[in-house]
Amino acid sequence: MRIGVIGAGQLGLMLGESAKSLQLECLFVDPGDRPPAASIGDCRRAAFDDSDALAELAASCDVITYEFENVPVDALAAIDSVPVYPPLEALSAAQDRLSEKQLFETLSIPLPGYFAVDSRSDLDEAIDKLGLPIVLKTRRFGYDGKGQAVIRDDTDRDEAWDKLGGTPLIAEAFVPFDFEVSVIATRSQSGDVVVYPLTHNTHADGILDTSIAPLDNPQLETLAGDYAHRLLDRLNYVGTVALELFVCGEQLLANEFAPRVHNSGHWTIEGCRCSQFENHMRAVAGLPLGQPECKGYSGMQNLIGSIPDPVRSLDDGHFHDYGKSERPGRKVGHVTVVAPTAGQRDRAVAEVSRIVTQWTSRTVT
Ligand code: AMP
Questions:
Q1: Residue 24 or residue 316, greater confidence
Q2: CA distances from 38 to 25, 28, 264, 350 (A)
Q3: Does 340 map to a domain?
Q4: 256 alpha carbon to ligand 1 midpoint, in Å?
Q5: In the listed set 129, 156, 173, which residue is the last one of a domain according to the structure?
Q6: What CATH number is given to the structural domain containing 219?
Q7: What is the pLDDT of residues 179-219, one digit of tens each?
Q8: 145 lines ligand 1 (CB under 6 A)
Q9: Which atom of ligand 1 is nearest to the CA of 112?
């Protein structure tokens, strides 16, 4: 079976590696010059909205999937010869923070207060309704904390508007969360759902820094699993999804979801019986899903901007090199540790983080 993958970044690379282990072939389309997944499968260089390239891909494949959520929905909707998974309704909702929040509301998934902002007077009204602080975000094309501004007091208001105004925005109540988690889950074509253990995430400069799992909080685990189920079933979803949530005491508030495999699930490659990547491929290929059980206590450290030499020869760590050139703020690799106890895992992750911090100079939030 041949699977067409739109996007050939590191997520495509890891999808391609899983596909290989399942004896599935991947063909990629990506606008980049020698993107990471070109090392694992045939990759045609074309824009994501190049309808000829997408039609050609569809003609050579049995099913199409994507590893990037900003693929134009219209370009994918034009493909009618083979199925496209995850369904375009999921892609479309995830591309617009307003539709995404409305979807959470219809599913009774709790979320921060929000207000659509299309004008300066909307912003003033949002602040009146939500109070300060708020987070002002572009509705579309935001990622890794980009396209956002926090308005803490009245003096920030003009600055935030100058930075972001002129494009559709959304204002969100600022959530004083305890910490952030994500739940990753996969749904098969027959409607079976597997949910991965809840992952605790930290960010640095708006980019995912570490992911630690399992969280070992059965109550939050059950709640997150329930929300993931609601989302997947409502969208008649096929593939892997990631739902990012804020933890506030015993409550979870939905931040956003990604209709694709996710950076906070990289640890599942070595840390689970069947990874998020393999399960995504299984789902889109119509195969039964594998089990998401943990093999131990896992932790993942992202490598941003550069790869510290010492991580290439770690005794206790699985190093992944995406083969990308080094550039500030760019995800170039990651390291996963899997340990028999949470304590050993925490020490191993701390050691990798120490190496990374020494190598670069960043502030972990
Ligand atoms: P996002 O692009 O929406 O995932 O936001 C990036 C990061 O900004 C999140 O992981 C949070 O750390 C922070 N953030 C986003 N929205 C809020 C919010 N409403 N309240 C507090 N922090 C937020």
A1: 24
A2: 13, 8, 23, 33
A3: yes
A4: 9
A5: 173
A6: 3.30.470.20
A7: 999 999 999 999 999 999 999 999 998 899 999 999 989 99
A8: yes
A9: 19
